[in-house]
Amino acid sequence: MSGDARFTESVIARWSGIKVLLLDVDGVLTDGGLLYSAQGEALKRFNTLDGHGLKMLQSAGITVAVITGRDSEPLRARLQALGINHARYGIDDKLPAAQDILADLNFEWSQVAAMGDDWPDWPMMKDAALRCAPANAHHEIQTRADFVCKTSGGHGAVREVCDLLLSATGHYQTIAKKYAL
Description:
By secondary structure, the protein is an alpha/beta fold. The chain has helices at 9-14, 48-59, 73-81, 94-105, 122-125, 139-144, 157-168, 172-178; strands at residues 20-23, 35-36, 42-43, 63-67, 86-88, 112-115, 130-133, 147-148. The strands form 2 sheets. A 6-stranded parallel sheet has the order 5-4-1-6-7-8, sandwiched between helices. The chain has a two-stranded antiparallel ribbon with strand order 2-3. A hairpin with a 5-residue loop joins strand 2 and strand 3.
């Protein structure tokens, strides 16, 4: 976090009220590539930096929710391992799913950070207080995002957003001290 000019005090102050992070999966938590096994099962690669960032975010009291167009047992297992309890699978129209999650959690759009990489993600991103995109997001999403990561989806982009939110909510230094940083 330290030394990154994108994390100015005004940026951090603007997003200090974030209570939930909405994420897409393909192209955000993964690199967007799909590998298929001989049995036709889609395989995904997740980044441990992202996973640890999500766990730290949750330990700081920020809820993580996932809305994805796909569904698979490996995906469900990964989200369960990360302690993500709010997920919607096989969703084409992500806005109603996002609205349902916010209603279930009693949050407003002003308390939401959302991250996506392509056009189907924009409806769940457009009203969020913080709209984020990985470096490899489609240019239409990047130009509309408040924050574009230096890294690509599946390669630590989610961790960048987690670090931003931890800083904005005043938890970054406290958690860093646990690791003697």
